[in-house]
Amino acid sequence: MAPIIKIEGLEKTYDNGFQALKGVDLDIHEGEVLALLGPNGAGKTTLISIICGLARATAGKVTVGGHDIAHDFREARKLIGLVPQEMSIEIFEKVEPNVRHSRGLFGKPRNDAYIEQILKQLTLWDKKDNRIRELSGGMKRRVMIAKALSHEPRILFLDEPTAGVDVELRKEMWEVMSELKKSGVTIILTTHYIEEAEAMADRVGVISKGELLLVEETKTLMKSFGKKELHIDLESATDTVPPALAARGVELGPNGESLIYSYDTSAKQTGITDILSELRQAGLRLNDLSTRQSSLEDIFVDLVHEQKQDEQGDAA
Predict the structure, then answer these.
(1) CATH 3.40.50.300 in the chain, residue ranges
(2) Which CATH number fits domain 5-223: 3.90.550.10, 3.40.50.300, 3.30.565.10, 3.40.640.10?
(3) What is the dihedral of CA 26, 27, 28, 29, to 10 degrees?
(4) Which CATH fold topology does 227-293 show?
(5) Global pTM?
(6) How far apart are CA 223 and CA 33, in angstroms?
(7) pLDDT at residue 23 above 90?
(8) What is the pLDDT of residues 134-145, one digit of tens each?
(9) Distance from C-alpha of 200 to C-alpha of 203, rounded to nearest angstrom
(10) What b/e sequence results for 18-42 when a residue is b if at least 16 CB atoms lie within 10 Å of its CB, and e otherwise?
């Protein structure tokens, strides 16, 4: 099956010479949730803006549902719903008429049943007669999603949907995204919240300085890059790591009260048995053992660090 969005060699250079995107290639599959992960200024919003027709690419090609955005923009844009990072909403309007109006802007015939359906899906139906200014921040974001869905798009872009909201509201938004995915909508989510990508996405794309460093299934990414740390809490603090343990990569923890050993979860032998044997031979007694799984944040930091090292190597 052809990807619903195909991006080939996409570049964007601004008039001041800043290159926001550097040859991005990406296929997005229908019905998936793809998280584009990267720090502020990485190129996430620029990428979305080009796909949605809000900015022009310097080079490259993008097709949406088989429509080239440069030559068949109107047909491509009909397939897309966009929820921008910044609130852009008519606060003095009532909820239902405002959402219905958004549908009309795309030339869609009036369909009150469908508008009712999406308002109920987003738990906005009981607020349909409220003016938008009367709603909480979370409800306003839901209205923006309803407006983006009003013309029945197959693709929904969410640009930093939970930026600046509290943890409870963030989890509510995750629930909304889960329901949208169940309905078959393809979701492209940009975020710099690692836990958001880890919780929601089928695949994760990591962007840094305009380059797409990788795109991988979230579970596969965690498995292939995943490491665990064994934390050994000691009965008595130590100033140094015994040579036999240091040779195995064991490091001293904070204040010398623990030892830390990193190992590959996919390896046939973790080396933990040998570590514990060496520990006894060194005369160190332990209080407790615990393990910590590496997170998507650890993986992201490692990838960006590798990119910086590559750049420094090229510069040298």
Answers:
(1) 5-223
(2) 3.40.50.300
(3) -160
(4) Alpha-Beta Plaits (3.30.70)
(5) 0.73
(6) 19
(7) yes
(8) 998 888 888 999
(9) 9
(10) eebbeebebebeeebbbbbbbeeeb
